[in-house]
Specification:
- The protein is mostly beta strands and 317 residues long.
- It has 5 helices and 21 strands.
- The protein has 3 domains: 89 residues, RNA Polymerase Alpha Subunit, Chain A, domain 2; 90 residues, YbbR-like domain (RNA Polymerase Alpha Subunit, Chain A, domain 2, Beta Complex); 89 residues, Beta Complex (RNA Polymerase Alpha Subunit, Chain A, domain 2), CATH 2.170.120.
- Strand 18 and strand 19 form a beta hairpin.
């Protein structure tokens, strides 16, 4: 009898009891939800399963996520343990598509409950075009100047070209890429450095590391001055001999320590000479020309040798 009463008491008026239980669950959930906190993080957007196409217009690269859960659960989650991605497996032709964003949890985000994740924006409009790959040459971007009196005589890039991927319409206008700026200021010796390729457009993908080895050769500039038609003086003739060079003047290529010294130099009298002191009889001779008191200057002559005819004094033949 008591058992029947117990069962009757439990089953009696059951709709009201079910409704009360449901309300109690809802109140519990609302109470628990009211205690949840929010945390905001930004994570990079991943584009997945896009093979023959590429985005051809700007789109958000970072997505703002709102994490809602219990404070002691959501704050230990690492930013990289929630990935946001746009699934593009079904897109095979160029066009504009509205793609909802999805996310997946890993690492510290696994097993966290309750956890609500909201992406801002929730969907993105992508303009897609065919993907093109090609080789493009690299050029260095120089800034500054080497030290005065020095010059960069040569340089090399290794590699000197790279492969890039990009949307077809955009790739048609790309003929070359530049490195990040290479500073030459104050350089006076050879140097090498590693530089990155300048990413001129975020829609272009550079294959490989994007790092380039740059080598420069720096040489000192030697100030020079060319002086023309400098007369030749004949010296050292023995008594009873005379002679004149076949060519009466030479040109001088003068190298100095600096440009100011080169410009200030004045050719003194009898500066260029031929020495006949070793000649003891008439005849035709080839003699080297030389400069008297050249100081710190380095000289080259054109011609370096002259022909001179030595005759007996008074002999006009």
């Amino acid at each position: 009898m008591n058992r029947k009463r117990l069962i009757a008491g439990i089953t009696g008026n059951w709709p009201a009891k079910v409704l009360s239980l449901g309300l109690a669950i809802i109140v519990f959930i609302f109470h628990r939800m009211s205690r949840l906190e929010e945390r905001f993080i930004s994570v990079p957007l991943r584009i997945e399963h896009l093979t023959s196409l590429m985005p051809s217009s700007a789109y958000p690269r970072m997505i703002r996520l709102t994490l809602r859960g219990e404070a002691n659960s959501i704050y230990p989650i690492l930013d990289g343990d929630i990935e946001v991605f746009a699934e593009m497996e079904n897109f095979t032709a160029p066009g504009t598509y509205l793609v909802p964003l999805q996310w997946r949890k890993k690492g510290t985000a696994l097993g966290v409950e309750p956890l609500q994740i909201t992406a801002d924006p929730a969907e993105i409009s992508f303009q897609l075009d065919y993907k093109i790959s090609k080789f493009v040459p690299l050029k260095p971007d120089f800034q500054g100047q080497v030290d005065p009196g020095f010059a960069m005589t040569s340089f090399s890039l290794q590699p000197n070209q790279i492969i890039i991927d990009g949307p077809a319409d955009l790739m048609m206008n790309i003929a070359e890429l530049y490195t990040e700026p290479i500073d030459l200021s104050g350089r006076r010796v050879d140097f090498n450095t590693t530089v990155n390729v300048m990413q001129s457009n975020p829609l272009i993908v550079i294959r490989g590391s994007g790092s380039i080895e740059f080598l420069a050769h720096i040489s000192q500039i030697i100030p020079v001055r060319n002086i023309t038609h400098v007369p030749i003086t004949v010296t050292g003739l023995k008594e009873g001999l005379s002679g004149e060079p076949e060519i009466k003047t030479v040109n001088i290529h003068l190298e100095a320590r600096n440009q100011e010294e080169a410009q200030k130099f004045e050719v003194p009298p009898d500066f260029i000479k031929v020495d006949c002191s070793g000649i003891i009889e008439p005849g035709d001779y080839i003699l080297r020309v030389f400069a008297d008191n050249a100081g710190d200057f380095k000289l080259r002559f054109d011609p370096e040798e002259v022909k001179i005819k030595i005759v007996l004094s008074g002999d006009k033949s």
